[in-house]
Amino acid sequence: MGVYIRGVDEKVYREFKAESIRRGLKIGEAVTEALKIWLNKHRKEEDSIDIARKINNATYRMIKGKLLRDHLGKWIAIADGRLMAVADSLEQLCKENKEIFEKYDHVLVDQVTPEERRIVRWRGRSLKIYREKQ
Q1: 126: β partners
Q2: Number of structural domains the chain divides into
Q3: Is residue 20, in this structure, part of any structural domain at all?
Q4: Which of 2, 30, 42, 118 has the fewest CB atoms within 10 Å, i.e. is most exposed?
């Protein structure tokens, strides 16, 4: 079976092909190996994001009582299992804490209310808004 891939940088392909030949591999073998390495790398990244999400959610649950007492109505950001920031609005939180969103793959952002949670999760540099029942 033949596979054709468009959009490959010609210089990178020539270097890749030359390295494959130096290592005694057919180009198909080298591409297959490269694709497997790429897949494993990205699967590990997804696993680390999922672990960070679980840690941040657990932190939220553990400190929710304190948040309700001290920060009712405020917006909070939790990353790396720690409360990183508190602000009066979502816009203020995002504007004043860009470095948090750039540094961490997963940031749990929530407005502290006793009712239904409104959660914004930063994942892969895109904002997704969810509604969760408690």
Answers
A1: 123
A2: 1
A3: no
A4: 2
